Amino acid sequence: MSSNDYTPLWQELGLDLDNHAGLLGVLSDAYRGIYLAQANRPRGMAYFDFVISEVHGLRIKEIYEAKRAGRKVVGGFCVYVPEEVVLAADGICIGLCAGAEVGTAEAERFIPRNSCALIKAFMGFKLAGLCPYVELTDLIVGETTCDGKKKAYEIFDELTGKVHVMELPHMKGPAGKRLWLGEVARFRETMEKLTGAPLTLEGLRHGVAVVNAKRRALQRLSRLREADPAPLSGLDALLVNQVSFYDDPVRFTAKTNELCDELEERVAAGVGVTAKGAPRLLVSGSPMAIPNWKVHAIVEGSGGVVVGEESCIGERNFRDLADEDFVTVEEGLMKIAERSLTIDCACFTPNDERPGNIAALCERLRADGIIHYALQFCTPYLVEAYKVETSLAGVPFLRIETDYSMEDFGQLKTRLEAFIEMLR
Question: What's the rounded Cα separation, in Å, for the pair 378 and 317?
Fold first, then answer.
């Protein structure tokens, strides 16, 4: 990772320095072996490589200095966190550590062994003293997307003292919409108490415009992945989507658009990262936080290419924009709430939009098959796999269930290689 010495900063944040050094060493080795070993990468990926090399370094220093200047830091684990409202209050919105098998033994002192890997990881990162983002936050926003998370947030609040839970309805009828609008309004009040200043119309318009610009850049990147040969690997596209939760949003948007400029040149010239006609896969299901790169690495190491992610770290995060046409703060909050209820998370019932959205995405990206990826014990996505598969009859479909460990790497590789071979 970084060659700079951030030890005093990590020490001030209370990290376990020995364990943290070990974690960065493992991540650095994995990144070199998975990402930097790829051939024919676009030049524009150098920026995202730099971000990863400094994800616990320069970015932490930036946030630390902004916090000392008076800005508030809000962290979360979900796309329902209203980033627009955080930016409207001149805050910083960041994703928290959750994508690696870390601190498992510590986490299992507080939560059941059969908790999903994401819950176990965010508890583990905190308990093992390995997440500088958690330590920098002034507020952590939880949400009731599943029973495991909402109960874990109670314990997480005991550990951190700064969790605010938003109650997400599980049905999208009029009552559910009223509930969610009330929760977004309650979050506004929380942000106003945190900053000591009222939310302004100008600030909210700014917040919506910045987040929409980021979504437009990610939409542009997604459209470029329609090309055959694919101009960008699925691994690199996944990385860009993951970085969108950590980087400064304005800078991220500019760098993503620069990457897209280069990819447009590649598409025009017929330059790809794989041979034309390579099997094209859509990965659908549970989100993949940094450094969860296992499935993409296996697929692309087996001759396929991932052309899309139907995931919260993917299309679900940027498919729809918030309406920027509002004249009061209250109307703006309503537009933000309405946009987030277009997200087809498996926590909703019925969730009829998701199969249709997957079918449309599969057709647009010209995917040859779908890999339905679910974390072990992630009940909403595990159960919904049946509905997705049966509604997409005729599209080659493979269900996989895994976690953040490497114990099933060989088994997954065998199954994915066989699936890709079937698509040839």
Answer: 19
